[in-house]
Amino acid sequence: MPPTEKIRPAGTDGLRDSVLGGDLSFLLARANALTLAAANAALAAHGLKARSYSVLALAAEDAHPTQRELAEFLRLDPSQVVALIDDLERRGLVERRTDPADRRANVLVATDAGRALFARAQESARAVELGLLAAVTPADHERLAQLLRLLAFPT
């Protein structure tokens, strides 16, 4: 008598209960892909993507990051950061200024137009986040953020 095969539902629902469906690295990557796609769709109305939004957000907060700091913080290749800044600068949203602490480096500063665009884009980004996390309680949302901070910024 042949062994009985487990019949699973068609489509990705049947894969959810697989070994991979319980793998933390996979779940983080899948959640990232889903949230990134949703954020990019929402930010497109503002002429931004998640990466350019991230650069603009840090510039708009008056953090005055250097290009090197941006690359390290965003985990991007420095050449990618240069391209993102070049695009935002061409659009009049950010400016490179000499770093008063190190005249060999530039810091990034948002223009008034950049701050205004960031404020509008931030509303869209928050709406997407709330929509994606609708099934999560506010307490779980905060706990998830705490756990992700621990993973993202190990001491």
Provide structural commentary:
- With about 160 residues, this protein is mainly α.
- It has a domain of about 100 residues: Arc Repressor Mutant, subunit A.
- It is about 55% helix and about 10% strand.
- It has 6 helices and 2 strands, in the order H-H-H-H-E-E-H-H.
- Strands 1-2 form a two-stranded antiparallel ribbon.
- Helix 1 packs across helix 5, helix 2 packs across helix 5 and helix 3 packs across helix 4.
- The termini are far apart.
- The mean pLDDT is about 90.
Record the SSE blueprint.
Elements: H1 24-43, H2 50-60, H3 67-74, H4 78-90, E1 94-99, E2 102-110, H5 112-132, H6 138-152
Antiparallel strand pairs: 1-2
Helix pairs in contact: 1-5, 2-4, 2-5, 3-4
Key terms for this structure?
two-stranded antiparallel sheet; 155 residues; Arc Repressor Mutant, subunit A; mainly alpha; single chain
> SSE string, helix = H, strand = E?
HHHHEEHH
Oligomer status: single chain
What would you call the shape? elongated
CATH architect. name of the domain at 50-152: Orthogonal Bundle
In short:
Helices cover 57% and strands 10% of the residues. It is mainly alpha-helical and 155 residues long. The radius of gyration is 20 Å and the shape is elongated.
